[in-house]
Design brief:
Elements: E1 12-16, H1 21-32, E2 36-41, H2 44-56, E3 60-65, H3 71-85, E4 90-93, H4 108-129, E5 138-142, H5 155-175, E6 181-187, H6 193-201, H7 205-214, H8 224-235, E7 246-249
Parallel strand pairs: 1-2, 1-4, 2-3, 4-5, 5-6, 6-7
Helix pairs in contact: 1-8, 3-4, 4-5
Bound molecules: nicotinamide-adenine-dinucleotide.
Nicotinamide-adenine-dinucleotide is lined by residues 16-17, 19-23, 41-43, 46, 66-69, 94-98, 117, 142, 144, 187, 189-190, 192-195.
C-alpha cells in the first residue's frame, strides 16, 4: 500500500526481528512512510531478502545479521545504522520468541533463553542506540497481551512481556528531557510465522483457531499490518505527546468480560 502521508521521511530506523512477521510488516510500513530501515535479524537470509524486497518496492533498506542475545552483535547493529544512515532516530525492539511452560514445567535453560531473547535484548539495544538519538527520537518495545492477562503455560514469556512494560516506563522517564519517547505495544493474537508453528503442531487446528479468535472482542486474529500501523504511529510525531504507555493492539481481548461472547 502506498502511503501519501510520509510521517517518517528520512528517519533512520532499526527494527529487530524484521525478517518475518510483525517486524517485517513494520519495516514495510516504515519504508512506505519514508524511513530508511535497518533490518536486524538472526535469520541473515531472511533479513537480506526483506531489505531487497523493500528496495525493489522503492524504499531504502539495509540489513545486518544480528542475534539480539549477543552484546557485540547489538553494538554492530547500531554502528551499522550510523554508518549507513548517519543517525538513529527510531528503535523498534521487536525480536522475540514464544517459549511455553509454567514455572514448574519450564527448564531453567528455557527461562534464561526467553529472558535473553525477549528482555535483555531490549536493554542492550536501548543501551547502545540511545547515545546516538537526538531530540524527537522514538523507541517502541514489543510487549504482549500476555503481560496484561493470565494464560496458563506461559510463565517465562509473560514475565518478559510484563517487564518490557516496566522497562518502557522507566526508560521513558529517564530520557524524556532528551526528547526521546519510549512506548510499547501489546498485541493480541496475530497470525505470524510464530503462531503458524503452533497451528502446524496442533491436533485440531480448526478448534484452536476458533478458541483463539473467540478470545478477542472482534472475534478474529489480528494481522501483522494492524500492529505495524500502531508502531508507526508511536514512532512518528503524530504521537509527540505520548510517552511511557503500552497500547494494546488486541481486538478487544483485554476488555472482553467473562460472560461476553465474540460471536
Ligand atoms: N504473533 C503474535 O500473536 C504476538 C502477540 C504478542 C506479541 N508478539 C511479539 O511480537 C514480536 C514478533 O513476533 P512475531 O509473531 O512477528 O514472530 P515471528 O516468529 O514471526 O518473527 C520473529 C522474528 O524474530 C527473529 N528472531 C528470533 N530470535 C532472534 C534473535 N535471537 N535475534 C534476532 N532476531 C531473532 C526471527 O528470526 C523472526 O524473523 C515478538 O516479540 C512476539 O513476542 C507476537
Amino acid at each position: 500500500m502506498e502511503h501519501t502521508v510520509k510521517r517518517l521521511q528520512d528517519r533512520a530506523a532499526i527494527i529487530t526481528g524484521a525478517a518475518a512477521g510483525i517486524g517485517r510488516a513494520t519495516a514495510d510500513r516504515f519504508a512506505e512512510e519514508g524511513a530508511r530501515v535497518l533490518i536486524a535479524d538472526i535469520d541473515g537470509v531472511g533479513a537480506e531478502t526483506a531489505a531487497g524486497e523493500i528496495e525493489a518496492a522503492g524504499g531504502t533498506a539495509a540489513w545486518i545479521q544480528t542475534d539480539v542475545t549477543d552484546e557485540a552483535q547489538i553494538q554492530a547493529m547500531v554502528s551499522h545504522c550510523v554508518d549507513r544512515f548517519q543517525r538513529v532516530d527510531i528503535l523498534v525492539n521487536n525480536a522475540g520468541v514464544a517459549v511455553p511452560g509454567s514455572v514448574t514445567s519450564m527448564s531453567t535453560d528455557a527461562w534464561s533463553r526467553v529472558m535473553d531473547i525477549n528482555l535483555r535484548s531490549m536493554y542492550l539495544a536501548m543501551r547502545y542506540a540511545i547515545p546516538h538519538m537526538t531530540h524527537g527520537s522514538a523507541i517502541v518495545n514489543m510487549s504482549s497481551g500476555q503481560a496484561l492477562l493470565g494464560f496458563p503455560g506461559w510463565a517465562g514469556y509473560a514475565a518478559t512481556k510484563g517487564a518490557a512494560i516496566a522497562l518502557t516506563q522507566q526508560t521513558a522517564v529517564e530520557y524524556a528531557r532528551q526528547g526521546i519517547r519510549v512506548n510499547a505495544v501489546a498485541p493480541g493474537t496475530i497470525m505470524t510465522p510464530l503462531n503458524q508453528k503452533i497451528f502446524d503442531e496442533a491436533k485440531d487446528a480448526e478448534a484452536l483457531a476458533k478458541s483463539w479468535g473467540d478470545q478477542h472482542a472482534l472475534g478474529r486474529f489480528g494481522r501483522s499490518e494492524e500492529v505495524a500501523s500502531v508502531i508507526a504511529f508511536l514512532a512518528s510525531d503524530d504521537s509527540s505527546f505520548v510517552t511511557g504507555v503500552c497500547i494494546p493492539v488486541d481486538g478487544g481481548m483485554r476488555i472482553l468480560g467473562p460472560t461476553a461472547s465474540a460471536e
